[in-house]
Amino acid sequence: MAGRPRSFDRGTALAAAVEQFWRTGYEGTSISALVRAMGITPPSLYAAFGDKAQLFGEVAEVYAARTLEGVDQACALPTVREAVARMLDDTARVHTDPGTPLGCLLLTEPRLDGQRDAVRRRLVDRIERGIADGDVPADVDAGALASFLVAVMRGMSGAARDGASAEEVHAVARTALAAVPAPPAPPAPPAP
Amino acid sequence: MAGRPRSFDRGTALAAAVEQFWRTGYEGTSISALVRAMGITPPSLYAAFGDKAQLFGEVAEVYAARTLEGVDQACALPTVREAVARMLDDTARVHTDPGTPLGCLLLTEPRLDGQRDAVRRRLVDRIERGIADGDVPADVDAGALASFLVAVMRGMSGAARDGASAEEVHAVARTALAAVPAPPAPPAPPAP
DNA sequence: CAACATCCGTAGTGATCGCTACAGAAAGAG
DNA sequence: CTCTTTCTGTAGCGATCACTACGGATGTTG
User: Fold this and answer.
1) pLDDT of residue A183
2) Which of A136, A152, A168 to mutate to test the interface with B (most CBs of B within 10 A)?
């Protein structure tokens, strides 16, 4: 029933494919570049992963899981402002990490608009919770703020790919935070 | 000394090339797609424009001139806040104009980072003038604010290409405006 | 008019694209 | 061991890539 086992580690090869697609995007990545990066031959790639589109689907799944985990960790912080600050800071750091390709696959790849919307939905939910919690003014448009944050992060990805330094990208993050409304005054604190 | 004149209008063909590159980017645009859009044959294209890269250079020149004209018009407004508001509003409108390709060629094409820096420099200059004029607080980091604005506009381009409505993209623009610091209090106005 | 310069379309260059037919190698099942 | 099953690499499929050689068409110039 069983035949010859595959001679490479599927997970390792997939990780190499993630890196390659991350660096050069879907259209910019050729099968020959993939097999070189993955250390396998074309028939092995097609046997193990289907075709280029299916392989990219698995790559996107891995990448999105990693990204959404970071988003969720940030969203777990007690206030929207803290969550957004953490998320923007993470974004700036990851996008300029010299150990990985610059920028973000999820934010830049045209065909991953569904994954981008998943991020946006999480942000909308978190902001609405912030409104309910009282740490965000009730007149804030959660959808607009979430779209804005996705736009800024996408812009940070582009800046990183243009060669902006980590400090420049962090400066964008800090500036964007000013667009997150300050919490409405809670019970007046004692004067200093 | 003169031979057969060319049978097509160079400017019209260039405009068609602008639209094609705008829609599908440099790498995503093939010569066959270009000649189809321009209504000419490959030898005519190569005779009139050199090669693909040179044609794209002319396309970028045309596109950047148009874009920078809009930027300069916005920058001519009396305050940084008005200039930024105008620029973001223009951006939202142009990026979602159903009469042209979605998004922005200048902001999305990887090889146009030089043109993006030209936009950024104009923004830095305008913000520094705003600081000198007193309509922007002196502690504002002009470079960071300019990078932020470029990032937001790039994000708006991506959102438009993802299919966001004109209203959604405009909402991003309005939200981003909140990151532009309010002018420092001028001579105290009479109480209402 | 003839001579010349330039452009036109056809047709095809070698290279690379995504993908696969094929035959041999390497494992478990009997 | 043999048989079966699956993976392996080589080698090559048709399509498309950017680009061009070539010969005929179409102008201006003398």
Assistant:
1) 83
2) A152
State the pLDDT confidence band at B2, using cuts at 50, 70 and 90.
confident
Domains of chain B: 61-177 (1.10.357.10)
- Using CA coordinates, name the residue in chain B closest to A157: B151
Please count the other Cβ atoms lying within 10 Å of the Cβ belonging to residue A128.
16
The ipTM of this complex is 0.93
For residues A158 and A163, give the distance between their C-alpha atoms in angstroms, rounded to a whole number.
Answer: 9
Q: Which nucleotide is nearest to A31 (CA to C1')?
A: C18
Q: Which bases on strand C have an atom closer than 7 Å to a protein beta carbon?
A: 4-12, 16-22, 24-29
Kindly report the nearest CA distance between residue A170 and chain B, in angstroms. 9
Contact A175 B113 (CB under 8 A): no
Q: How does DSSP assign B46-102, residue by residue?
A: HHHH-SHHHHHHHHHHHHHHHHHHHHHHHHTSSSHHHHHHHHHHHHHHHHT-TTS-S
Span B22-41, mean pLDDT?
98
pLDDT tens digits for range A2-53: 789 999 999 999 999 999 999 999 999 999 999 999 999 999 999 999 999 9
Q: Say which of A143, A151, A163 has its CB closest to residue B152.
A: A151
- In angstroms, the separation between the Cα of residue B150 and the nearest Cα of chain A is 7
